[in-house]
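Protein in question kept in full:
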Amino acid sequence: MTPQDLLIALRAQNPLVQCITNYVAMNVAANVVLAAGASPAMVHASEEIADFTPICGALTINIGTLSAPWLGSMTTAATCARTNNIPWVLDPVAHFISDYRKCAAQALLAERPTIVRGNASEILALAGEAGAGKGVDSGDSVDAAQDAAKALAAQFGTVVAITGPVDYLTDGDREAHVSGGSSLMPQVTALGCSQTALMGAYAASGPAFDAALAALAHFKVAGTAAAKLATGPGSFQMHFLDALAATQPSDLVQAIT
């Protein structure tokens, strides 16, 4: 499916997306998914997973503010999604900063996510390579992580998206680059995390590679539009949500190279 077709499908279907994400990202992720045209649900209690995950169009998991109870819910939800053929997206936030977080990311990766989204340092480390990440910030270029992304995609049968100034996407065979956005985007808390939630909405609407590509393009197009009106990070966030909602299917092609 083309990105245009996917955005049309997303808005027509209004898929329900379960977002198990971090405390910082919950509000912005929910607003991003809503603005794009889908329906977010921030359901994470382990007692609800068996009932709720199977009725969702997609699941997204972000390990930003990780704790033992949340990890149990994440693992259970990932298994449930895989068992029920529900697409799910993994965001292994700063998984290299502790052994606990590294083990959690590897355990979730073993559940074979449909899409993995991360910055260059996160993708390098997930593939077992050394990187220069500092907390949640990447210290590596997108280009430096491309081979690691291809290796991960081939090993786990997943689509890997590396986000940065120019995003890179691969399923091990196909690849794409997505450009645009704004330098203000990294200055808005959890905006990257919210992109993972948006990828879930697109994954509920079409094939994984096409869905990830459309989500990346939607973010870049909206970021470019918002930057024209914003005077700083605060006003950018407001204009970005408006731009996500205003983006037309035909707009998405301008970001893909």
Summary: The radius of gyration is 16 Å. Strands lie at 16-20, 39-41, 58-62, 88-91, 115-118, 159-162, 166-170, 175-179.
